[in-house]
Every structure is written in C-alpha cells, then in structure tokens.
TrEMBL record:
GO terms for cellular component: cytosol. SUPFAM superfamilies: Activating enzymes of the ubiquitin-like proteins, Rhodanese/Cell cycle control phosphatase. It comes from Barrientosiimonas humi. InterPro entries: Rhodanese-like_dom, Rhodanese-like_dom_sf, ThiF/MoeB/HesA, ThiF_NAD_FAD-bd, Ubiquitin-activating_enz. This is Adenylyltransferase/sulfurtransferase. Gene3D superfamilies: NAD(P)-binding Rossmann-like Domain (3.40.50.720), Rhodanese-like domain (3.40.250.10).
Length: 371
C-alpha cells in the first residue's frame, strides 16, 4: 500500500491506516458496469479496495456514453467488463480486478456473490435485482442498492439480520408496463454519477465499519427539486427470503417485463409498412412522446401519444380516416398496448409495427437514429 496515494484517507481519524488496511483486505462484487457501476467502480478502485469483481455481459453502445463515464467513443462494441477493468487498472494498479463478462442468472449469482464482503447492485432491471438480493440474503452479505429513472433516484443498504432486504420493501415486481425502463423514460446522465457516488460512500463506510449506513432507511432523491429524503423501512416478518418462515431457499428469478406483452396483438413488418406508405395505403401513428420522436421518427407518421389512447381522446382523432392503422413506438410494447386500447374503446382493429422504430432503422432506413 502506497501511503502517498491514500494520504487524504490517512488524514481522516475515522479511516487512518487501520481503515485503509481494511479496504485493502476487502473483496467487493459490483453487479453492472454501466451508469451506476461506473462511478462506484471508479471510487472503490481509487479508494484502494483490495479486490473488485465487476460483472456485466453487455457491450458499449453509443447511447451509454451520456452517463457511463468509464467508456469512450472508441470503446463502442467492446465488452463493458473488459474496458472497465482496463480503466480501473490504469487508475489504481494496487487493486486486483476480476472482470466477468457473464449474465446474472439463478445458476450463476450465488457463485458470483460467494466470498464477497459486500455487493453493489448497479443493474437496471427488476429480475436481476431480485436475484442479487436473494443471493446476498442467503450468503449474509450486505447489498448496496440504487435505482435511477429520469430525475429520480432511490438508494438503500439491504442487509438481512441487520435490517430489511429488498424483498421486504418490494415484495413483488411492478406489473408489465407500469414502470418504464431508462431506455423508454430517459435518465439524466449526471444523476448516475450523483447516486453512484452515494453507493460508493455507503460501501466504503460498511467496509471500514464507520458511520451510520443506510440500513433501515430508503434514501429518495429528486434532482429537479434537489431534495433528499430518508424514508424509514422495516424488515417484513413474512418476507419470502429473510422472514420468519422463508420459502425461498435459493435465488429465484421473478418473471418481469418492462413492457406489456405483444403476443396477442397483430403485427406488421417494417418492410411491409414501407411498401404501404409508398402507396399511401396505410396511416402510421406514433404513440411515443415528443422527446422520443425528436430523436427518431418514421417519415410520414403522425403523433398521437399513448396517454391519449389511455384517456380515450385518441379515438376521435383517428376516426376521420378509413385507411388501415399501424401504431408504432420504440420497440413494440407501447404500440401493442395502444392497439388493445383502440380495439376495446372503438372496436377498430389496428396493427403494431413489429420491433418499432428500431426495426425500421434496421430494416428500412439506416439513417434513422437508434437510441
């Protein structure tokens, strides 16, 4: 351990040489090397955590660069775990790095968590959050968790035996379509840095056993109002994994989808819609909001947002044209919901563009940006 590197830590009475040695002897697993994982990994490596295992099966995409600050334009297409390990090794060669380019599954998660002193959850989907939580509860390992969307964030430390776990507070995932993903709802790039830094701080406090960690408190942040609120949360005695009579004995996958199912909705391919548009034989209606349409849109489509289908105001707007209707969104989930609502509200059938604007960009017009 190089004293000069950690001099500002050594000056802190709460840290000192003893705290720095504890960090050097620690092993942390960070699930996800994206928006949250990037600042977490950077600060833990800079702080001198002895071993960092970074788990991410994804590759760098152009849309990541707005918030995932470990990556650069030249990294597009490369595995995130590999690139992150390179950056962290350059930042601090004292740290032992173990990049794992693999998917977090029921079969793999327990092995990933085994032997860790602490786990940080930087993932962006509900199914993985439940898996990671279950593995940490069963291994007795504290979990530093966060979630970000748009301008809002939540942060907590889930630690069964000391306070609630994730399932205690969120026993079930949301219904399909209830919560948009960051890819649909957007996220302020800087918010990932703000919240990732909070996660890193909580992790360092736990590893050094200093301060009061966010156990039994859910930190809620509104970046637009620049407010932070701490909401008390309690262990649930009926929790399926950490309660008095647990029913989950191994990490369990929750069936979760961020969009409504599309199996029962008639669809049409991008190539077919392109041919119909050339003959003016179809009316293409985009159900996304203005912000998404400003990024990418199909020429000749018109905007009627999904909210108008939900409140019924769209029905009169679409009644003045007898051409076949094709509804479109980013990838097909929201347009499928709109097709169902239209049929239920008016009896009129429509089709959903299979794969949405992303399929249009891939199969018809590569000049349309993807996001």
């Amino acid at each position: 351990m190089t004293s000069a590197r950690y001099a500002r830590h050594l000056l802190l009475p709460e840290v000192g040489a003893a705290g720095q040695r504890r960090l050097a002897a620690s092993r942390v697993v960070v699930m996800g090397a994206g928006g949250l994982g990037a600042p977490v990994l950077s600060y833990l490596a800079a702080a001198g955590v002895g071993e960092l295992t970074l788990v991410d099966d994804d590759t760098v995409d152009l849309t990541n660069l707005q918030r995932q600050v470990l990556f650069a334009t030249d990294d597009i297409g490369r595995p995130k775990a590999e690139v992150a390990a390179e950056r962290l090794a350059a930042l601090n060669p004292d740290v032992r790095l173990s990049p794992r380019r693999e998917r977090i599954t029921e079969e793999s998660v327990a092995g990933l968590v085994a032997g860790a002193d602490l786990v940080v959850d930087g993932t962006d989907n509900f199914a993985t959050r439940y898996l990671v939580n279950d593995a940490c509860v069963l291994a007795g390992v504290p979990l530093v968790w966060a979630s970000i969307l748009r301008f809002d964030a939540q942060v907590a430390v889930w630690w069964a035996g000391h306070g609630p776990c994730y399932r205690c507070v969120f026993p079930r995932p949301p219904e399909a379509g209830q919560v948009p993903s960051c890819a649909e709802g957007g996220v302020l790039g800087a918010l990932a840095g703000t919240v990732g830094a909070v996660q890193a701080t909580e992790a360092l406090k736990l590893l050094m056993d200093v301060g009061d960690p966010l156990v039994g408190r859910l930190l809620v942040h509104d970046a637009l109002r620049q407010t932070w609120d701490a909401v008390p949360v309690r262990r649930d005695p009926g929790c399926a994994v950490c309660g008095d009579a647990p029913t989950i004995r191994a990490p369990r996958t929750e069936q979760v989808t961020c969009t409504v199912a599309v199996d029962d909705v008639p669809t049409v391919s991008a190539q077919e819609v392109s041919a119909l548009l050339r003959d003016d034989a179809v009316r293409v209606v985009d159900v996304r909001g203005e912000a998404e349409r400003s990024i990418a849109a199909i020429a000749g489509s018109e905007a009627v947002p999904l909210e108008a289908f939900r409140d019924g105001s769209a029905f009169a707007l679409l009644a003045d044209d007898e051409r076949p209707l094709v509804l479109v969104c980013k990838s097909g989930g929201r347009s499928a919901e709109a097709v169902r609502l239209l049929l239920a509200g008016t009896g009129r059938a429509a089709r959903s563009l299979d794969g949405g604007v992303l399929a249009w960009a891939r199969d018809v017009d590569p000049a349309v940006p993807t996001y």
